[in-house]
Amino acid sequence: MTNETIFPAGFLWGGAIAASQAEGGYDADGRGLSTSDMVPYVNKRDYTDLSSQMSPSSEKIARAMAHASAKGYPKRYGIDFYGRYKEDIALFAELGFKTFRMSISWSRIFPNGDEMQPNEAGLRYYDSVFDELNKYGIEPLVTMSHYDMPIHLALEYGGWKNRKVIDLFVRYAETLLTRYAGKVKYWLTFNEINTTIIEPYTGGGLIMDRESRPREASYQAVHHQFIASALATKAARAIDPNVRVGCMLARMIHYPATSSPEDVLAAQFENQLNLLHTDVQVRGAYPPIAKRYFAENNINLVMERGDEEILRQHTVDFISFSYYTSLVAAADPSRYGVTGGNLYSTIKNPNLPVTQWGWHLDPVGLRTALKDMYDRYQVPLFIVENGLGAKDHPEADGSIHDDYRIDYMRQHIRQIGEAVLDGVDVMGYTVWGVIDIVSASTSEMSKRYGLIYVDQDDEGGGTLNRSRKKSFDWYKNVIATNGAELD
């Protein structure tokens, strides 16, 4: 990339967090308990099997419900963005953000999820957040559902497997769209919607020890999310024609383990399954591969009359996605060793290094993903999560020299620039997470992504004071130069 910027004017540089990992205030101003409030911190070192932690059993949820405090449940206290949002947004403004990706806590607006009237205190809180962003000219990019739903809907309705939840979500979405019309231009419906298949509790509120056919239940849940997303998109256009609605995918690009035709087919199939979710939300229909896959895996998807028309008529305006790593597929994966990457556990790629959490470091894979998706869909793309989780070590003076994070971001942003030169329409880039937050998968603080350090440990101890890492000043200059200066 030359020193002359190739990023388009108006490129949306920014950063991202999620309410469940940052806000805290789990019992403040009428908020109800959510699915994320049930997930404890467990000091583990094996990151390949987190399903028992990320998807708690009925017994563990009952125990968590009876636990009245936040102690031991880090997502209940987060980093107190709820109380410190003005301080944090001022730091985002110092970075020069054009946009800030955040989510709204559903249980802060509808504490149980099935009330007829919203919680006014919760609505006022987000009014204040949006007003603060507007003060600095920062455009909010808002996710309606980011790994977080009222626990009541999981316990009493069975989560997204129950079709009744569609109407409850649409009521929630219409409430947000109406209240924040003119304040929020960019909306995302569901975060990493494909995660409902990988981690059904996290993505869809399914309590798996209640499910006799878990794979089928997961696909039924994601089908209901597809319908809810389409209806929310329909509502958005009716309420405020100026808004733009996007879907959000955890992009899991797969390479074949070898050049054998069988391995190439295995990788192609994994990529088709990953992109099934954007096929539905952008093209408006399930792809051809879905029929065979459902039949061969005994997945009996229940669709009501009119579902296909809803999906066809109310497609999204753009695709947003997360990209952290690439994966490897093989016809016979048992022949290979695996990395320790929780959601991204995969066959080891001998051509790539891995992070402390077992994720392949593959900046070129981001360019490949961008080109593949743009060739397939021809709609604008938005990288709304990309970043490096690492154990940061403050120096004696409190400074943090996170050159490893700068190098990660530099390499990925450079590949985004190459994709722009390839002709890909890229709307923006929001680094995950701009400030240290509680990890979605492991509920720890020591897996840090932020450009801003938060003085809090895995047990919740610390001052919560914020400080700038070395990467803060580096990214500030990237934004100021619209991507022209990366070195």
Short description:
GO terms for molecular function: beta-glucosidase activity. By secondary structure, this protein is of the alpha/beta class.
Low-confidence residue ranges: none
Q: Which fold name fills CATH's third level, the topology? A: TIM Barrel
By secondary-structure content and strand pairing, the structural class works out as: alpha/beta
User: Could you report the average pLDDT, rounded to the nearest whole number?
Assistant: 94
What is the fourth-level CATH superfamily? Answer: Glycosidases
Q: Which term fits the overall shape?
A: globular
Q: What would you say the CATH architecture is? A: Alpha-Beta Barrel
| Major sheet details | 8 strands, parallel, barrel
Helix content: 25-40%
Secondary-structure element order, N to C: EHHHHEHHEHHEHHHEEHHHEEHEHEEEH
Number of discrete domains:
1
DSSP helix count?
A: 17
Rounded Rg: 21 Å
| Sequence of strands across the biggest β-sheet | 1-2-3-4-5-7-9-10
Query: How large a portion of the residues is in β-strands, by DSSP E?
Result: 5-15%
Distance between the termini: 11 Å
Overall strand count: 12
InterPro entries: GH, Glyco_hydro_1, Glyco_hydro_1_AS
GO molecular function: beta-glucosidase activity
Family: Belongs to the glycosyl hydrolase 1 family.
Keywords: Glycosidase, Hydrolase
Structure write-up:
40% of the residues lie in helices and 12% in strands. The protein is of the alpha/beta class and 487 residues long. The chain has a single domain (12-480), classed as TIM Barrel. Helix 16 links the parallel strand 9 (381-385) and strand 10. Helix 4 packs parallel to helix 6 and helix 15 (363-377) packs parallel to helix 16. It starts with 11 loop residues before the first strand and ends in a 7-residue tail after the last helix. 51% of the residues are buried.
